[in-house]
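hiii, so i know i said id send this last week but things got crazy w the move. better late than never?? heres the sequnce for the chain we talked about at the cafe, plus the structure i predicted for it. fair warning i was half asleep when i ran it
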Amino acid sequence: MENLFNDFKESIFNEETKSVMTDYAEWGIDSILKDKVCEEIPILKTLLAFCRVATNIRECNLMKQTYNFIKDFNEHANTENVSRHREELNNNKNKLEEELERVLTLLDRNYEVSKTRLLALLYAAYVNRRISWDEFCEFSDIVNRMFVSDLSTLRDTFANDGVTDSSIMSHRHDRLISLGLLRNQQALGGQILMSIEGADRDVYIGITDIGRLFCEIIFN
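okay and structure toks below
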């Protein structure tokens, strides 16, 4: 397991990896994973060996998710911050294991590329010191529990700074409320809408503070 963590660290925090990803940017993912590019990225090389031995669907999925994670992370993480974070992990084995074990576990559980890209954006925000490790953990749990189909609803709610038309409220808003990203502005017992300080309109569903930060990271 330690070797796997080191392979992942060398893959994600390596300037050469970013260059390799750029060179193969126009290739399809299946073509990339069958080509020699896997030999140039340590974590993919390790996972590819598992796939070749057992044709293991789980390992093959993890390889695809890991590739997409590294690609999107490198597109959004600041180079200086990546170098700094790499040194932090080199000097703190416990931190290395905690971070990369969580990321690999999340990727292993995930079968949707869209969720993997959200995780990459969130991890880049963490490495860029935009959010804390605890916030990354909270956000990654939200991504894990989220329905991909609810992302468009969240995007619209964020873009409009809430829901002001009761006719468009749906079960998707309820699911996002259960994740803590949105909140119901209505009072209990079917009463009139709660007032929002400084608001000049009725807002049925608002965005929580954590929801706003989450949206700023994944949509901006």
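btw Residues 2-145 form one domain. thought thatd interest u
miss u guys!!
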